[in-house]
Structure formats: C-alpha cells, structure tokens
Amino acid sequence: MNTVDVIADFTHKIENDLNIEPKDQMPEKYRLHLIRQISQHAHSEVIGMQPEGNWITRAPSLRAKQILLAKIQDEGGHGLYLYSAAETLGISREEMLEQLHSGKAKYSNIFNYPALTWADIGAIGWLVDGAAIVNQVSLQRTSYGPYARAMVRICKEESFHQRQGYEIMANMMKGTEAQKAMAQDAMNRWWWPSLMMFGPHDSDSPHAGDAFAWKIKRKSNDELRQKFIDKTVQQAEVIGLTVPDPELKWNEAKEGYDHGEINWEEFKRVINGNGPCNKQRMTHHIQMHQEGAWVREAAAAYAKQQS
Ligand code: BYC
Fold it and tell me: Residue 148 in contact with residue 142, Cβ under 8 Å?
C-alpha cells in the first residue's frame, strides 16, 4: 500500500469504530503515541506493586495477607499484558525498561507517595484502583485492539481490588477512634494525588488532540476525574469519611460536584522525578531488574533449547 492508501484505510477504520490491529498499517505518530501511553501504563502497574508490597509482611490477618498478595500479583500480571500489547507495536521489553530507568518514560504520579499505615492499603485499593477503573473502563473502547482487549480483563480484576480497599476502609471506620483517625488520615493524604491520576486539565493536555482524533481516548481527563469524584464522594459519606476539600459542593445544574483546585505544581514536581518516593521506587526497580538477569537468561536459554 502507498502512503495515501495507508492513511485512507486507517482513517476508514477509525471513523467506523473498527479496531486497529498489529498487522494493520498505521501512521507512525499513532504508533509512537500508543507506545508512550501503553508502556507508561505498564510501568505504572509494575511500580505500583512497591507501595503495597511494603505491607505484605505486616498485614493484620492471614486473610488480609492472602488478599493483598493476590492483588499485587494481579498488578504484575496487568504489567505483563500491557508490555505484551506495546511489544506488538514494534518496541522491545528491554527498550521500554531502558526508557523507564533513564527517566524518559513516566509512570503514574500516584506511586511516588509512601504507604505509611495499613489504612493506606485501604486507600490505595479504594481510591487509586477506583480512579484507575474509571479511566480504564473508558479505555476498553480505545482504538488499538490489543490495548482494548487487555483493558477488558484488567477492569474485571480492578473492581475486585477497589472493593477490597473499600472493605478495609469500611472496617476501620467501624473500629476504635484511633482506627477511624488512621483511615481519615489516609484519605487526607491520598485524595488529591488520586485526582491528579487523571492528568492535567483538558486545556493543558498536549496529547488530547491526537488521542481524540484517533479514538485512543474516549473521554477527557476532566470528564473522567468528574466521574470519579461523583461516585467516590458518596462512598466516603456511607462509611463516615470526610473528603479533604472544603470547596467540595454539589452543583445541581451540572448534577456533579464542584471541587477545589488541584495543586498542579505538586503534580509537575512528582511526575518530573521529585516526589517523596521517586528515587526509592526507581532504585528498587533497577536493583531488582539487575538481580533478575539470571532468570531472564535461563528462560531465554530454555526457549532456545526447546526450539
Ligand atoms: N502520572 O497530555 P496528557 C493502577 C503526563 S496503574 C504521570 O493529558 P495523555 C494500579 C503524560 O504522560 C494505572 N504522568 O497525556 C497499579 C504526559 O507526559 P509525556 C495507570 C502523567 O497520555 C498498581 C503529560 O503528563 N493508568 O491502576 O493524553 C496498584 C501530559 O498529559 C499523569 C494509566 O496509565 C499521571 N497521572 O493522558 C494499584 C492509564 N497524567 O508522556 C493500581 C492509561 C498525565 O508527554 N493512561 N501525565 O511525558 C492514560 O489514560 C493517559 O495516558 C493519561 C494521560 C490520562 C494518564
């Protein structure tokens, strides 16, 4: 196909809501846009295992420990589906990891905050996975087939994660005064960074134009953030938690909450490598990657022997 035919075929598929598949020809900018987003999404899943992994040995019961272990394993699995989806676009796992380690590729702002107490594990499941689901449900209809299909499976698992987090928070809110205070403290620390997960306001989102034109994004950063706020405020009220935003107010006309301004300076600082845990997260990932070299070598040697 010549370039004109490639563009015509691609445009026809996008306009008719047909998925783009790995063997289809696609504009180079579309391919690079997807590699950026999918690899960053994969990195987020894998780096996200660190704050939770910190609590496996200190979970308050065997049941809680089993659930947390299963959840963290799921996150590793999500990373694998997403790395595989990105590989279909012609980038290797090694290249993606190099981009992560060099700081070229980002990962979600949220995983640069510490998990200080057991209530933080509740807040991560409820708020962080809750925010991730809102975003990922909409990505189930993204235009690139392997990414869309990965999202379907990931969303099913994320809803279990969100509920386990909410259960932790609900139980703590039925407990002693100290437990209630611990839950509220976690809510206070995780609320605003969770809102930042949806990315900058639409007016400041440089990738939004292409993302909408190519149906990579189906809903904007602000639309998804609003959806998350509206459903989460009600969940907080049910268990007696206070949302740490004095400007939060129901707006009858828009049938949604108005909220206070997000600290975008903090967001920029964190995504550019200067949040509370960025260095710790990356040092840990690089060290584990180096220590795991023998596993990759053994797997490659076995695969070669089999073929
Ligand atoms: N954090 O033009 P924009 C999980 C960057 S893991 C860091 O709006 P876009 C879980 C953005 O990359 C779930 N950076 O970009 C795992 C861009 O910079 P670059 C993770 C952010 O792509 C374990 C710049 O800001 N979910 O659930 O149109 C345990 C301008 O932004 C962030 C995903 O990754 C951020 N929050 O929209 C528990 C979802 N936001 O790349 C839970 C998939 C923005 O030019 N990704 N930036 O250097 C997306 O949906 C979109 O990429 C975003 C951003 C909505 C995040």
Answer: yes
Distance of CA 206 to the CA centre of its chain: 19
This prediction's pTM: 0.96
* pLDDT tens figures, 14-29: 999 999 999 999 999 9
How far is ligand 1, taken at its centre, from the CA of residue 211, in Å?
A: 12
* Nearest alpha carbon, ligand 1 atom 7: 108
- The rounded distance, in Å, linking the Cα atoms of 98 and 104 is 8
Q: Which amino acid type is present at position 136?
A: Q
Model confidence at 1: pLDDT above 80: no
- C-alpha torsion angle, residues 249, 251, 256, 262 (rounded to 10): -50
Q: From residue 251, how far is each of 46, 86, 222 by CA, in Å?
A: 38, 40, 16
Distance 261 CA to ligand 1 centre (A): 19
* Residues 175-195: tens digit of each pLDDT: 999 999 999 999 999 999 999
In this structure, the dihedral spanned by the alpha carbons of residues 183, 189, 191 and 194, taken in order and rounded to 10 degrees, is -120
CB of residue 207 inside a 6 A radius of ligand 1: yes
Mutation to probe ligand 1, out of 29, 37, 157, 262 (largest number of atoms < 8 A from CB): 37
Q: What is the pLDDT of residue 90?
A: 98
